[in-house]
Backbone:
């Protein structure tokens, strides 16, 4: 009985996907936008954009060619298998805390997040204009389990009376739009590229 | 089909792309720093300084939606999308900055010269707009440097 319900929930999102594809059917598929397209006025972005700035006018082709040359070389990355999930950084596991109070001190974070394991690094960056905390912190733990526990226990909790969110900072691979805003619970990936807009 | 969540300038949803470039061409060749956040989460970082050693640093890593969301939040809070680079100093021999952002249904591609200090901002024709740009760029660099250095343990710059 319960199983059937779970199944039903699993199926519904797929129907949803099919509908999306129908809607998309008439327009050219918008793949993951490439660097180039973003520069040339967003031609591969699926919706027309209001554009603004000299970057759209001046020597656009030269600038674009230069940019492609700059960004076309090999970029180093840490070796990791593709797929979903958090990616390990070179010396540990990094989590991102957002919603951090502007008057938070390093000690507030060290005390709160030190409960889950030794904090190897903490970046509590400041707003360059105001000098107050910008609103996020990056924390490094040595072990996956420590970081995972910090996320489990602290995401959605309060720090200095402000609600904070805690999540991994790095991922093994690209994410799909479905991760950005959920419309319905989805147990598995959709099988086709999702519309970006 | 209709997107919701764009009420605050796309801070919560919709497309997001951000690229920043600063550089110049001088006696050490083309020296520049550039980074971009792509919509699928790929963060790319390139830093080319030919001074003394001529190694180009190029790094890339996928960030989570949470990181992109925070980046969007920083951009939205700055209200840079309301500005215009019409009256900003033009890129010159000393250097060039480019800031390109796609957020929601807006796409900006601003260019200007290097900004040495707040003095350059005050004396420009659009001090309010340029100040927003000046601080946003610093906040973005700070965010990216932290991400890159924590992930790769290299000291940017």
Residues:
């Amino acid at each position: 009985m319960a199983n059937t319900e779970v199944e039903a929930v699993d199926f519904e999102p797929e129907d949803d996907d099919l509908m999306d594809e129908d809607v998309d059917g008439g327009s050219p598929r918008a793949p993951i936008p490439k660097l180039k397209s973003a520069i040339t006025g967003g031609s591969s972005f699926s919706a027309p954009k209001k554009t603004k700035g000299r970057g759209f006018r001046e020597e656009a082709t030269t600038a674009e060619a230069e940019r492609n040359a700059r960004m076309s070389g090999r970029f180093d990355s840490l070796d990791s298998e593709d797929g979903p999930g958090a990616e390990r950084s070179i010396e540990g596991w990094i989590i991102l805390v957002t919603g951090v109070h502007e008057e938070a001190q390093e000690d507030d974070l060290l005390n709160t997040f030190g409960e889950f394991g030794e904090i190897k690094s903490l970046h509590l960056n400041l707003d360059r204009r105001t000098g107050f905390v910008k609103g996020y912190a990056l924390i490094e733990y040595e072990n996956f389990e420590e970081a995972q526990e910090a996320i489990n226990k602290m995401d959605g909790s309060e720090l200095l009376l402000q609600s904070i969110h805690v999540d991994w900072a790095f991922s093994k691979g690209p994410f799909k739009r479905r991760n950005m805003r959920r419309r319905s619970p989805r147990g598995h990936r959709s099988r086709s590229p999702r519309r970006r807009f | 089909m209709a997107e919701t969540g764009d009420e605050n300038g796309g801070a919560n949803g919709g497309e997001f792309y951000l690229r920043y470039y600063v550089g110049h061409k001088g006696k050490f060749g083309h020296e520049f720093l550039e980074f971009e956040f792509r919509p699928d989460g790929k963060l790319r970082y390139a830093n080319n300084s030919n001074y003394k050693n001529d190694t180009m640093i190029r790094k890339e890593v996928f960030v989570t939606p949470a990181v992109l969301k925070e980046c969007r939040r920083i951009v939205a809070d700055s209200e840079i999308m309301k500005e215009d680079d019409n009256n900003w100093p033009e890129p010159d021999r000393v250097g060039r900055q480019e800031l390109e952002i796609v957020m929601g249904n807006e796409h900006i591609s601003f260019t200007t010269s290097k900004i040495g200090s707040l003095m350059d901002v005050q004396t420009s024709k659009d001090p309010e707009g340029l100040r927003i740009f000046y601080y946003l760029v610093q906040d973005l660099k700070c965010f990216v440097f932290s991400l890159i250095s924590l992930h790769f343990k290299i000291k940017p710059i």
